[in-house]
Design brief:
kinase, 3 helices, alpha+beta, 22% helix, two-stranded antiparallel sheet
Length: 161
């Protein structure tokens, strides 16, 4: 069961399940990573709960915190349903490129198919921050290139930092 609050006419926040969440245990994993999660196909809030439990079962990551869930309009390709977005803060000992490949495998497990830019999707996982590192390669930019321009990141992020 989720409680909702209208943030603005086109933005609604949801609280419930494990969003937000804060771990009480410690971990020996090395790097703190902030991951933006999103989706707009099917029951996305339920998928986020399944993702939470899937990540909790993994040895390679430890879930530290999650944010509220924000329902917001799509950008880029606008002929699609609104998106649900949230933030998950994890610990991992993987390096950034290895962690990106790991996230792509998780997306695939949750039915993500890559068709075109900004297409509807079941699950999108983006690295927003990776410790205090800066990475700029063909496949990966850390911090995420547009994180500070997107309400879908800024509003959920405000509650987990």
């Amino acid at each position: 069961m989720y409680r909702s609050r209208r943030v603005r006419e086109d933005l609604t926040s949801f609280y419930g399940g494990h969003f937000p969440y804060a771990a009480t245990s410690q971990t020996s994993l090395r790097y703190e990573v902030t991951v933006g999660i999103g989706g707009n196909l099917g029951d996305v809030r339920r998928r986020f709960e399944h993702l939470f439990f899937a990540l909790k079962r993994e040895r390679q990551v430890e879930v530290l915190r999650t944010s509220l869930i924000l329902k917001n309009p799509p950008f880029g390709y606008k002929e699609q349903d609104d998106f649900f977005n949230a933030i998950i803060v994890l610990k991992t000992s993987m390096q950034p490129k290895e962690f990106l490949r790991y996230l792509h495998r998780v997306e695939k497990r949750f039915g993500r198919r890559r068709s075109f830019a900004n297409a509807p999707r079941t699950l999108d996982l983006d690295i927003i921050f990776f410790d205090n590192r800066e990475v700029k390669t063909k496949d990966l930019t850390i911090p995420h290139a547009a994180w500070f321009e997107r309400e879908s990141v800024l509003i959920p992020l405000a509650g987990v930092k």
